[in-house]
Write a structure and sequence with these properties.
Blueprint (H helix, E strand, L loop, with lengths): L1 H16 L2 H21 L6 H37 L2 H6 L5 H31 L5 H14 L1 H11 L4 H18 L11 H7 L3 H13 L6 H32 L1
Helix pairs in contact: 1-5, 2-3, 2-5, 3-5, 3-7, 3-8, 3-10, 5-6, 6-10, 7-11, 10-11
Pfam families: ABC2_membrane
Membrane topology: Multi-pass membrane protein
Keywords: Membrane, Transmembrane, Transmembrane helix
């Protein structure tokens, strides 16, 4: 257990404390979007509806920040571990391989927690949004749990083992996913066929769960089941590909 905690401590320092890209990209980009669409580009929104819009868009930017951190940061970090041979160093420790990934998943969840709290503070201090501590905490907690399937997507992308391929997959997945799931603008603005696709995404399902908590509504079990199915599907695929790559390496040797 002490070795596992030591590994978590090392990963915390190198992935979060020394990772300037996290603060500049995963946090600042969603904050800029939030300030732009909740404070500047609000012409035409009635004053009575402005607070609701600011709160709803805050939820979207929290999830968008976690989307960036869970896929792009995860994929790039794990790829850097491989290119710098840090993963080989980890393999030489007495810890089993699953703890290598578990220690990183915990750090990535912490990274998402930090970004979520940061964006919430912007909403509180800039737009004077007021919610009970229980509601704020529940929204953040559910969001962090709901990002686990996204983290597995990031792990899956990192298995491409090629920087160009990983960057291409990140761009092909993250930004279209943010658009069609309604994080950048309401999903109702898109064509019906695109709405049908967007409603199947984990980010749309997570957004609806958070919106239900925000407005005191009953959470639709359909969205909870959807996230669970995403987790099982992506987790199983990642496990199978990891085992296949390991078998292939052993076969080559």
């Amino acid at each position: 257990m002490n070795r596992f905690i030591y590994q978590i401590n090392i990963n915390f320092k190198r992935i979060i404390l020394r990772n300037k890209r996290f603060f500049l990209f995963d946090m600042m980009l969603p904050i800029v979007f939030y300030l732009l669409y909740s404070k500047v580009l609000v012409t035409g929104i009635p004053q009575t509806d402005l607070k609701t819009w600011q709160m709803n868009y805050l939820i979207s930017m929290i999830i968008y920040s976690c989307l960036l951190g869970s896929i792009i940061t995860v994929a790039n970090t794990l790829l850097e571990d491989k290119t710098s041979h840090f993963d080989i160093l980890s393999q030489l420790t007495p810890l089993p391989r699953w703890q290598y990934y578990l220690s990183r998943i915990l750090i990535f969840l912490l990274l998402n927690l930090i970004s979520s709290i940061g964006i919430c503070l912007v909403g509180i201090f800039v737009n004077n949004l007021t919610l009970s501590i229980t509601t704020w905490s529940l929204i953040i907690l559910i969001t962090i749990i709901g990002t686990v399937p996204l983290i597995f997507i990031g792990i899956l992308i990192s298995l491409a083992n090629n920087p160009a391929t990983v960057n291409m997959l990140n761009n092909l997945l993250v930004f279209p996913l943010a658009m069609i799931s309604g994080l950048w603008w309401p999903i109702t603005m898109m064509p019906k066929w695109l709405q049908s696709i967007g409603k199947l995404t984990p980010t749309f399902e997570l957004s609806n769960i958070d919106q239900s908590i925000l407005h005191g509504k009953i959470i639709d079990n359909q969205y909870v089941l959807g996230i669970i199915l995403w987790l099982v599907a992506i987790g199983t695929t990642t496990l199978l590909i990891t085992k296949y790559q390991k078998y292939k390496e052993l076969d080559i040797e």
